[in-house]
Amino acid sequence: MKALFKWIGGLAVLLVVVGGGLVIAANLLFDRKRDRVVALEVKGVTVVSDEAALARGKYLFASRGCGDCHAATGAGRVFIDDPASGFVVRSPNITSGGVVAKYSDVDWVRAIRHGVRPDGRALFVMPSEDYNRFTDVDVAALIAYLRSMPPVAGEGASFQVPLPVKALYAAGVIKDAAEKIDHSLPPATPVAEG
Confidence band (pLDDT; 50, 70, 90) for 147? Predict the structure, then answer.
C-alpha cells in the first residue's frame, strides 16, 4: 500500500512539474511570437483632406467595421470582456488624442494594410486582411477621416488572453493580423465608376 501511495505521489509531482513547464513554455513562446519584428517595405499614400476624401473615409470607417472595434468616436472600447476566463481585449483610441497621434502616413498604411505597428511588431487583433486590398485612394481617405476625428479621451490597446489561446497562438493555430496577409500583393487598382 505504501508503494502505491509513493507511486501516486511521484506521478502527481511529475504532472505538476510537466504542467508548470508547459505553462512557462506557452507563455514564453507567446511573448516571443508577439514581440517579433515583421520586416516590410511599406509605401506611403498621398493623403488629401478635401470634402470628397473625408466623406469616403467616413463611409469606409462606418461600413468596414472600424467603429465596431474602435467605437464610433474612435476612442476605443472593450470588445471582449470575460475576466473569469482571462480573456479581455480593448482596442486603442485612434483619434489624435490617442496612441496614433504621431503616426505618419506610412505608419497608418502599415497598420491598416499590413497589421503591423510602427515599431514593426504585429498587431494581435486587427482585421488587416480585410483592408489589405484597399486602393491607395481608399486608404488615404480613411487616414484623412481618422485624422479629422476630434481628439477624445481613451486608452491604448490592451489584451489579456487565457493560456489555451496563448498556446494556440504560439503554435500557429491562431494567427495575428500580419500572418494572414500576403504582403507582396500590390494595392488594388481603382475600378472605374459606372
Answer: very high
